[in-house]
Amino acid sequence: MAIRVSPPGTRGTRIPKPLLKLFKPMGTLVIRRYRRSGGNRVSSRMGFPVVLLTTRGAKTGRTRTTPVGGFPDGENSWLVAASLGGAAHHPAWFFNMAKHPDDIWLEVGSQRFKVRAESLQGMERAEALARIAAIAPRYGTYQQKTVREIPIVRLTREP
User: Fold this and answer.
1) Per-residue pLDDT of the chain (159 residues; tens, 9 = 90+)
2) Exposed, middle or buried: residue 9 (CB in 10 Å: 0-12, 13-18, 19+)?
3) Which letter does DSSP use for residue 85 in this model?
4) Which of 83, 85, 109, 146 could form a disulfide with 12 if both were Cys (CB 3.0 to 4.6 A apart)?
5) How far is 113 from 5, CA to CA, in rounded Å?
């Protein structure tokens, strides 16, 4: 199964424009710090495991790297939530994965590898979100902030 893009919501968390302008430079700093420390310093500061997700832009075709919460799901799989803090719309990286499913990379610690993405549905999605929220409680509150279904994606390491 590939990535299923659910419709956007009509309500959700609104991020003030001045704060939005800080996201890109902050993301660049987090990526740099992640790569220098092998992910250790970033994950401990965030309070949950962080991975770097690299996708090909849906519109631009350029590669984009984004720090995201990456929750282990077995030996070679990770769960990511396309929550965007409970916003009414999906994050750009989620659309990028849907548009270019064969061009998704993950950095976990100092390892970088290609992954296959799968949208979780129904009870499997609900159980995965509950496991994520048990590790990082803030993720459990995001679904309450929006009417859109927050996608949960399993990223599995390619052989």
Assistant:
1) 577 777 666 667 777 777 767 778 888 999 999 999 888 777 667 778 999 999 999 999 999 999 999 999 999 999 999 998 888 889 999 999 999 999 999 999 999 999 999 999 999 999 999 999 999 999 999 999 998 999 999 999 998
2) middle
3) G
4) 146
5) 24
CB 86 within 8 A of CB 97: no
DSSP letter for 89, please: S
Across the beta sheet with 71-72, the strand order is 63-69, 50-56, 104-108, 111-119, 152-157, 77-81, 71-72
What's the predicted TM-score (pTM) here? 0.89
> CA 52 to CA 31: how far, in whole Å?
7
Supply 138's token pair: 């803030």
* Tokens 């929006």 belong to residue: 146
Give the span between the Cα atoms of 150 and 147, in whole angstroms: 9
Across the chain, the runs of DSSP E, i.e. the strands, are: 50-56, 63-69, 71-72, 77-81, 104-108, 111-119, 152-157
Give the contacts of 103 (CB within 8 A, at least 6 positions apart).
Answer: 55, 56, 63
Token pair 């803030």 is at which residue? 138
Tokens encoding 154: 């399993």
